[in-house]
Amino acid sequence: MRVPVLTYHGVNVAGDAYVGNDHVALAVDLRLISDAGLRIVPLSWVVQQLLGLAARDLDHCVALTCDDGSDYDYFDLDYPPHGRQRSFFNTLLDFRRERGFAAQPDLHLTSFVIASPAARREMDQRCLFGRDALRSNWWRSAQTSGLMSIENHSWDHNHPELSGNGPYGMPRGSFLDVNNHARADAEITAAARYIDGVIAPQRCSLFCYPFSHVSDYLRSDYLPNHQAEHGMLAAFGDGATPITFDSDRWNLPRYICGYHWKSPDELNDLLHAGT
């Protein structure tokens, strides 16, 4: 198993070109992946394979994820000053209409979302034009669509734009400060419970570190030793290598659009090296 995991951000919109617009990039990349003879599979399949919970053929496969859970993941919305953006979800539908179901029968995108309603409202005001574009009203529809799933990106991202300290006096701006049980419960377990309440009867089981900040406490203590509390099967950072059977389940690697690749040619090279 050598599965590259590609990551996009719905709020990465700085124009209408591939570089700087993850919506444009995803539309191009879906075609590139298919033309390269690679198969897109759900991220959960990769984790199940890693943990010995399934035995699928994942040769020449790729998984897709997106972070933060903005409404741009699911709805077509204006992004000032760059106009209407085709959502990630609708981009998947466009690809399926264009190429047909058989081109990518397991087409899927995993969206890691921020749980706290208060944090999402404040981040929307301070970071996203105050248009109420960090909602949860689409999570269940995405989860039941068969094309997307909703997973855990923490309670509040410990985002630097949030007012006051984080849980249990945690300074804002770094997830490395989630370094004890109380803070970890507040950021991961509380988030899982909230997300599960929205997408019930489905449950989230995958965690993605905000900022790709992988604290040693979370990776080596809280996540492996307190699964009965948080319910996570694996966690993701940004290690920029394919997932293999040797990968650390509590720090699984991903490639970030705009950071680890900036053009279709770079992605093509990455995919052929990775698979």
From TrEMBL:
A Pfam family: Polysacc_deac_1
Top-level taxonomic group: Bacteria
Domain NodB homology stretches: 59-220
Entry protein name: NodB homology domain-containing protein
Coiled-coil zones: none
GO molecular function, one term: hydrolase activity, acting on carbon-nitrogen (but not peptide) bonds
GO biological process, any: carbohydrate metabolic process
